[in-house]
Amino acid sequence: MRKKMELAVLLLFLAALVMLSKNLQKLVSSGNVTAKNKIIVLDSGHGGDDPGKIGVNQAKEKDVNLEIARKIKKRLEKKGWEVVMTRERDEMLGDPKAGNKKIHDMKARVEIINKTMPQAAVSIHQNSYQDEQIRGAQVFYYSHSEEGKRMAEQMQKALLTVDETNTRQAKANDTYYLLKRTEVPTIIVECGFLSNPEEAAKLTDTKYQKKMADAITKGIIACVEN
User: Fold this and answer.
1) Per the database record, which ranges form the MurNAc-LAA domain (predicted)?
2) Which of 63, 81, 148, 222 has the highest CB neighbour count under 10 A?
3) In contact, 178 and 186? CB cutoff 8 Å
4) Does pLDDT of 29 surpass 70?
5) The pLDDT value given to residue 12
6) 220: helix, strand or coil
7) Strand pairing category for 186-193 and 138-142
């Protein structure tokens, strides 16, 4: 009788372990267990009615941003990361009937990031300046975020694999809405200057975009795993 009781207890214990394992797996897959989640949010700047910068070659920043972000997404997913995109097509976010579409768009991006609570958020952009000679990728972080600073410096270093002559440094900023409002470490990667003829040509070239995506992917992994 005693052996039967012990066997019954053992079976109940094993059943409980199986149920616990299944529930834990569900929690992880649903995003409720965030500490160990390998989640990154990629934000493709601009979109829809907001083209962003217009290159000297007439390239629209919104299109370049999305192409590079898509390539980064593929690379991260191959390495086992879950990637959430703030947009996956040419569109503005938020209420399309809103009076100020830009503000609603930015709020929607921040909401996606804060609801997802990823390990990090990376916003992809392109730069522009009146002087066509200015060039080089640069990373921005929120002035009051030490983790953001560390990530930006790590990413800036990773971008040297694309252009080792780039002397730009990671730069603090306290005005960018996305950097101020997000609740997780967030950086903005300006991949280059569409106002520079040489960089504009590169940034619209698929091979160069892949090279940039490789560098940013390595930078993201270095940021969150180190």
Assistant:
1) 110-221
2) 148
3) yes
4) no
5) 57
6) helix
7) antiparallel
State the virtual CA torsion across 71, 150, 133, 61 in degrees, nearest 10.
Answer: 40
Residue type, 70: R
Paired residues of 133 in beta bridges: none
pLDDT exceeds cutoff 90 at 91: yes
pLDDT band (50, 70, 90) for residue 131: very high
Distance between CA 181 and CA 112 in Å, rounded? 12
88 beta partners: none
Closest among 125, 93, 90 to 109, alpha carbons compared: 93
Share of the chain above pLDDT 70, in %: 84
Q: Supply 164's token pair.
A: 């080792």
In 3D, which of 44, 177, 63 has the Cα closest to residue 110?
177
Helices (H), the chain: 2-30, 61-78, 101-116, 146-158, 177-181, 197-203, 206-225
The predicted pLDDT at position 104 comes to: 95
Residue 193, CA distances (Å) to 126, 158, 170 in order = 6, 18, 16
Nearest residue to 72 via CA among 59, 61, 85, 53: 85
- pTM (global) more than 0.85: no
Instruction: Return the structure tokens found at 93.
Output: 């976010």
User: Where do the structural domains in the chain lie, given as residue ranges?
Assistant: 1-33, 36-225
**Can you tell me the distance from the alpha carbon of 71 to that of 114, in angstroms, rounded to the nearest whole number?**
23
- The yes or no reply on domain 36-225 and CATH 3.40.630.40 is yes
